[in-house]
Design brief:
Strand order of the largest sheet: 3-2-1-6-7-8
Number of strands: 8
Strand content: 15-25%
Helix content: 25-40%
Order of helices and strands: EHHEHEEEHEHEHEH
Distance between the termini: 23 Å
């Protein structure tokens, strides 16, 4: 499972990452939390659908999580995942208070994914202000998952990715142009960097 968190500069970074991920998206669900208010996330979802050439809905409560689809956290709501009675995963939309002053926030997505998928989850923290994603990233790594962060030089703001990088949580810290190719290799079965945290 690929989980992506982004804030300032995120839409452009998402374009760059998702443009070459057709093979990854076909194999694994992709869930994205981009800090945005309502309406704007709807527009972002429509745009990313054209870029990624696959369905990109805003997450709906109770919706099954399936490969071949990208799910965007709806503006003004947190998006999490939960294990259903059948054992499959489903979207959970939470109208609780802001986390890290953000709603939607990355931490609830990462933390819930740690509980549902553990070591099968890979988190990606893209450009953004603040520290959202740090606590969820800690939970993800503690559960056996992995994190990749965008590097400082290619980030509009190196707040969020910088926080997880400085915390020593990342398997790799990469320029934006290298993230898509690395993800494609990892999801194709190559494990050269995951687990080798600096």
């Amino acid at each position: 499972m690929l989980l992506i968190g982004a804030s300032t500069g995120g839409p452009q970074a998402l374009n760059a990452v998702l443009a070459g991920l057709a093979g990854v998206i076909a194999r694994a669900p992709v869930l994205i939390t981009q800090h945005m208010p309502p309406t704007f996330t709807t527009i972002l979802a429509e745009h990313l659908q054209r870029v990624a050439q696959c369905p990109v809905p805003e997450g709906r409560d109770g919706e099954p999580v399936n490969a071949g689809c990208i799910y965007i956290a709806p503006g003004g709501r947190h998006m999490k995942v939960a294990r259903r009675d059948t054992g499959s995963a489903a979207i959970e939309i939470d109208d609780g208070p802001p986390v890290n002053f953000c709603k939607p926030a990355v931490d609830p997505l990462f933390a819930s994914a740690a509980q549902v998928w553990g070591g099968k989850a890979l988190g990606l923290v893209l450009t953004g202000m603040g520290a959202d994603g740090l606590n969820g990233g800690k939970a993800l790594v503690a559960a056996g998952g992995h994190l990749i962060a965008q590097d400082e030089a290619s980030s509009v703001v190196w707040g969020m990715p910088g926080q997880v990088a400085h915390a020593g949580l990342c398997s790799a810290v990469l320029p934006l142009k290298e993230i898509g190719p690395r993800l494609a290799r990892l999801f194709a079965g190559e494990r050269e960097s995951v687990g080798a945290r600096p």
